[in-house]
Design brief:
46% helix; 2 domains; alpha/beta; 12 helices; Rossmann fold; 342 residues; Uridine Diphospho-n-acetylenolpyruvylglucosamine Reductase, domain 3
């Protein structure tokens, strides 16, 4: 990328990226779709690398979801654009389950994160281009679903281990990335899915947030992002209180002890116990059903859960039958916000 003076927006992007640079020399990988957000992030990475501010290896990865005709050509063009600005770029292709019960968007996201983790390697830091606007949309979607504090906390700045995923632009508006790309003179690709009103997030982006800004005045997106930050503080504190109460992996859960816990703590203990027992992303309905074994016990049969797992109550203790045990702890990839209940 030809050296040029930074414009105001470009400087914002560079400073945001500089604020998350690792001190341990971990290689950096920019996850780039070719859109303005990730291209601005890629340009900032190239800018800092070429000036010696990043001493570790920096490269980009472009994932082809195969959801549109010609997606392979778009992927190749984006990769070549990245190489022209000075970033080594590789591509990967994933298969997305269009009929996934979680929705095509969620399936594409999970496939993308899995591919990025494999291509980046366990020692890398993968940079994602989500902005404050994306955070505001996530919070609104959570509110519409009647979600709890964990879901309303939106997207974390960093998550995952081996590799670590980081969102440097989460406090910047989408307008800044578009302006930065104009300042850098870089072409961007507009994903047609971003204008497809079949998707709830697109309707929030194109209709709901603009209407709220028009009716309530500017600053709604920032206020929603602030709500996410406050909700995350509360959710983290509640998670910390619940963690010591989780039984050892594979053990049962005392119904009497669960009943004595405050509701917010009990919900987290129950959810953590189910996940450790092999229930992937238990829904609100799953949690409420299992809670009947505690709050409305009258000798009923067990509760069937995903993965062929069954929750039962035996001698005052909840147990999971057919459970595939997991360790408590961080997941490799972030669950979609709509999958979080508490």
């Amino acid at each position: 990328m030809a050296r040029r003076a930074l414009g105001d927006a470009g400087l914002e992007i560079v400073q945001a990226l500089r604020g998350v640079l690792p001190s341990d020399g971990s290689p950096l990988v920019v996850a780039c779709s070719g859109g303005a957000d990730s291209m601005a992030l890629a340009c900032a990475a190239a800018h800092l690398s070429q000036r010696g501010s990043i001493t570790s290896a920096v490269r980009a990865i472009v994932i082809d979801h195969g959801l549109q005709a010609g997606s392979d050509e778009v992927t190749a063009q984006v990769a070549e654009r990245l190489r022209r600005i000075g970033l080594p770029a590789e591509t990967g292709r994933v298969q997305v389950d269009r009929e996934s019960p979680d929705g095509m968007e969620a399936a594409a996201r999970q496939a993308r994160y899995t591919a990025l983790a494999e291509l980046a390697g366990p020692d890398a830091i993968v940079l994602l281009g989500h902005t404050l606007d994306d955070q505001a949309e996530t919070v609104l979607l959570g509110l519409a679903r009647g979600s709890g504090t964990r879901s309303l906390s939106g997207m974390p700045i960093a998550f995952g281990i081996g590799p670590r995923f980081v969102r440097p632009l989460l406090n910047l508006r989408r307008a800044a990335t578009a302006q930065a790309c104009r300042e850098w003179g870089i072409d961007v690709w507009s994903d047609p899915h971003n204008d497809d009103l079949r998707f709830a997030r697109v309707r929030v982006r194109l209709s709901v947030l603009p209407l709220l800004e028009a009716e309530l005045g500017p600053g709604v997106a920032e206020a929603l992002a602030r709500t996410a930050a406050l909700a995350r503080q509360d959710a983290d504190a509640l998670d910390a209180l619940a963690a010591p109460l989780l039984p050892a992996s594979g053990e049962g859960l005392s119904a009497a002890e669960l009943r004595r816990m405050p509701e917010a703590i009990a919900a987290r203990v129950l959810r953590g116990w189910l996940i450790a027992g092999g229930v992937e992303q238990p829904s609100y309905a799953h949690l409420q059903a299992v809670k009947t074994l505690v709050d409305d016990w009258h000798g009923q049969q067990g509760i069937d859960l995903p993965g062929g797992i069954r929750a039962v109550r035996e001698s005052g203790v909840l147990r999971l039958k057919g459970a595939a045990r997991h360790n408590y702890g961080a997941r490799q990839t972030e669950p979609p916000p709509e999958a979080r209940i508490y």
